[in-house]
Amino acid sequence: MFEDIVAKGNDSDAMKLHHLDKALVGDASGWITVKMIQDNNFEQTWKQLKSQFENPRVIVDTHLAGLLDLKPVLKGNHKELLELVKTVQRHVGGLEYQDIKVDKLSGLLLTKIITSRLDEQTVQLWERTQEHGKLPDFNQTLKFLQGECLVTQSLTRHTNLSR
């Protein structure tokens, strides 16, 4: 998106470098040096930055590690459940952006990883939605969890109002 808005835009190199420097986060934050800005060569800086940080293997490994390291969800905690769902969606989206799609096998593995992080009550509710003898579906599991987020949030709000 940055590339579409800034890199391909009509701003001067100095302005593009300014926007780029302000947009960098994480390990890339502070990467642009005063010399790079003084050289006023956005194209060269952009190429160096992409070369340094656009490593598909590192990107994929980061997303896989994020999925394997999902935090367990405590019983009835809608915020943790919502965070789990958002984390899964973010990492799966990142993998799909790298052209790694969720297929039958990866969907089963993701479903197993996700359900292993759920509390016992949520797993029981999820199991009740599964057809006997049929393999679970990753997208259906995410839909179920999104619905559970709404239910637990509503129950939490109701409990807080009752006090």
Mean pLDDT: 88
Q: N- to C-terminal separation?
A: 47 Å
**Judging from the principal axes of the Cα atoms, what is the shape?**
elongated
Q: What's the helix-strand series?
A: HHHHHHHHH
Provide the gyration radius in Å. 22 Å
Largest sheet entry: none
Q: Unreliable stretches, pLDDT < 50, 5 or more residues?
A: none
Beta-strand residue fraction: under 5%
SS-derived structural category = mainly alpha
Fraction of residues in helix:
over 70%
Tally of separate domains: 2
Helical run tally: 9
> How many E-type strands?
0
Pfam families: DUF1759
InterPro entries: DUF1759
SSE topology:
Elements: H1 2-7, H2 13-23, H3 34-39, H4 42-53, H5 56-68, H6 78-97, H7 104-116, H8 120-128, H9 138-162
Brief description of this entry?
InterPro entries: DUF1759. The protein is mainly alpha-helical.
How would you characterize this protein structure?
- The chain is mostly helical.
- It folds into 2 domains: 1-54, no CATH class; 57-162, no CATH class.
- The protein contains 9 helices and no strands.
- Helix 5 (56-68) runs antiparallel to helix 6 (78-97).
- The N and C termini lie far apart (47 Å).
Keywords:
mainly alpha; 163 residues; 0% strand; elongated; 9 helices
